[in-house]
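Here's a chain:
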Amino acid sequence: MTASVLAVVGARPNFVKAAPVISALEQIHGISVRVLHTGQHYDRALSGGFIDRLGMRQPDVNLGVGSGTHAQQTAGVITGVEAALVETPADLVVVAGDVNSTMAAALAATKLGISIAHIESGLRSRDWSMPEEVNRVVTDHVSQVLLCTSEDAVANLAREGISGDGVRLVGNTMIDSLFRLLEGVDRAAVLARNAVEPGNFILVTLHRPALVDDPKLLRPTMEVLAELAESVPVVFPAHPRTTARLEDTGYSGWGKVMLAEPMDYTDFIGLEAEARLVITDSGGVQEETTVLGVPCLTYRTTTERPITIELGTNELVGLDPNALRSAAERVLVADPPAEPPRIPLWDGEAGWRAAEAIDALLTD
């Protein structure tokens, strides 16, 4: 008897996290997998062979939900996923990460009595001003298979009363995709396109509302980046939200900071792997820099990935331009890490372990 699985993805990070699990599930006898893309984000980087390079096929269904308020996106995904499951029933729904599509798909499935597997369960920032925190907690509490990246995630779930055989420590599936994609990146070409040399530039990615929606914080932060750019190149592929807020400040020049359009994911990780320092407010970048052995400064007051600080190359500096300046200057004069740190189960095989955990539920 064949078990049917619907894998739901909603944005580029979902594809990166879910692809290794989907690929592994498709190789397990007795499991049939369909892929639904909610279309929460239109991302040009999902075209041009990116999905193929991840080792997964194109989605079977695309809801085309698009942008909108959090409520509009959530409602659109719930309605669309419910309709897809009614038309083609599934025994289990797989969701990944913490975007609106993740929570919405999980809610649609649970209302229909369908089991849910959550990739990247148990991450907690304890910052309820972040929509992602709400999405994580809700999704975990309606899931039956909770696939955790690290021991601290397992501990977080236990504190919320979630434990037992459904909680599985499988490792970080995003790192599976990172390793796979980096093999095909022409790093020299990426560096040349951005006019930088290996180990001699800072890569920046900042987009969260706590920073970009506060002009009293955004402008002095950019001034710090401009100061750093006087001594080492600073490449800043800016999220459209960030670009718009920078324009709102009424100031168009930020010294030698190289503001760029959003990058193809493979170009970004090619730069990331060769950077001297990465400054970010992203979650996934904290993990990527850790396994790449690249120093990372997280420009936030909290992180849901504390293992990247405890065992990795990440440092939480808060939302303070002066603290950012001091930390960056300290990193730039220090010796780079001799080799990437090792985090248990971040080994490129997490997708297989996740698929085996899902298979165990389906065959129980």
Q: What stands out?
A: The first strand starts at residue 3 and ends at 9.
